[in-house]
Amino acid sequence: MPADGHSSDQRQKDFAERFAACEAAVCGCRPIVERAYRELVGRGRPDRHALEAATVVLRWHHPELAMPEAEQIVERWVAGNILH
């Protein structure tokens, strides 16, 4: 078992529950994260920079999220807004 005392399955379940809460706007962070991304892109900032900033906003609201998890959530939320 990992040093944190949680199995991989339990960490995945915890992540899924946190993500579901954010998706359902229970905590209210999703609109803030999306706004950070949208406004930066709207001001001509590169997409990658806007994603990084939005991830910082999400992690401010949820410091318990590991960077890869936070990046994954932000990318899902703004996927429809990304211009390639």
3D structure, described in words:
This protein is 68% helix and 0% strand. It has helices at 8-23, 29-42, 47-61, 67-78. Helix 2 (29-42) runs antiparallel to helix 3 (47-61) and helix 3 (47-61) crosses helix 4 (67-78). The protein is elongated.
Question: How are the SSEs ordered, and which strands pair?
Answer:
Elements: H1 8-23, H2 29-42, H3 47-61, H4 67-78
Beta-strand percent range: under 5%
Compute the separation of the termini in Å.
42 Å
* N-to-C SSE string, H for helix and E for strand: HHHH
Secondary structural class: mainly alpha
Mean pLDDT: 81
Q: Output the radius of gyration.
A: 14 Å
The global form is elongated
- Biggest β-sheet strands, sense, barrel: none
Helix content: 55-70%
Helix tally? 4
Number of strands: 0
For the structure shown, list the relevant keywords.
4 helices; single chain; 84 residues; mainly alpha
Question: How do you describe this structure in short?
Answer:
By secondary structure, this protein is mostly helical.
